[in-house]
Amino acid sequence: MTRARWLLALVLALGVPLAAHAHKASDAYLSLAVDGANARGQWDIALRDLELAVGLDADADGRIRWGELRARRSAVDAYALSHLRVTAAGRACNARVASHQVDAHTDGAYAVLALEIACPDDAALALDYDLLFALDPQHRGLVRVSRGGEIASAVLSPAQPRLALTRSPSRWRAFTDYAREGIWHIWIGFDHVLFLLCLLLPAVVRRSEGRWLPVARGRDAALDALRVVSAFTLSHSLTLALAALGVVALPSRWVESAIAASIVLTALDNLRPFLPARRSAIAFGFGLVHGLGFASVLAELGLPGGARALALVAFNLGVELGQLAIVAAFLPLALALRRSALYPRALLAGGSLAISALASVWLWERALGA
Which residues 6+ apart lie within 8 Å of 1 measured at CB? Predict the structure, then answer.
């Protein structure tokens, strides 16, 4: 083990809570080097996911210790290998776990399984992956394949669980995979969605003499929403790129706590405006933090420059498409209801209050690592 991994093993020996961050989806990272009919690789699986699948916390104290993980090693191997199948022209290959380690990712501790795969021949090699799909349909397998000097990536999901290994995944497959995952991650990233809703709720009303009044023209509200969303898009795209390319790196707890704080502040500002900047400036400023949160999936892959740039562009495009879908669903409804007496009280005030309360819980959990 490297020094960092020995330190992590020591922390596990003492016992650490494995609380997942509220917006982080379940991901596992599989890296394979294919050489003819054989392959070697590394499979990183979150301990929190293995706890869900096979049970690691023997004394049920909410902490996984090194001894508990070691005691369940055979169960971990059996579970993992039963959900990863490599075939050659339809014939099963022999896969085994050669060694075990632990490592730290941005969202917690992971078991690292060193894989060795031997196939009858190298004809039509294919990989079928369904780890955790039965337990968590949101789980994704982030796969990195090297073969013949080429390196490419793919995202495996319940909808697309198979990958051909005879040749590296096409750039188009990688692009569409990451675009789809960008859409998916904005839709399941409830904190990002709630922040976007906080920005959009006041778009169809205006503040006058301490009261919220409906905007006279729907076109004006749409333009205001466009300015706000554009500012948010520009800022989170900037920090997403910087973080994914390794230019900026901040501790995950800081980033996620700041995201929760941004939701609380924006929601409270909807109740009684106190932030000094215009909402487009607020969207830009807080969007810088949200971009760091979006970057976690891409930062973990460790892809070479060209492949990372492709994944970055595709993922960001997917995030924007997912975001536009949310705006397109919300804005017409808000415009239709803006003249109702219930909008400023029930939707704007009540919704913002509920969002602020939920985000305050997230902030407490993330700041304290609860």
Answer: 9, 101
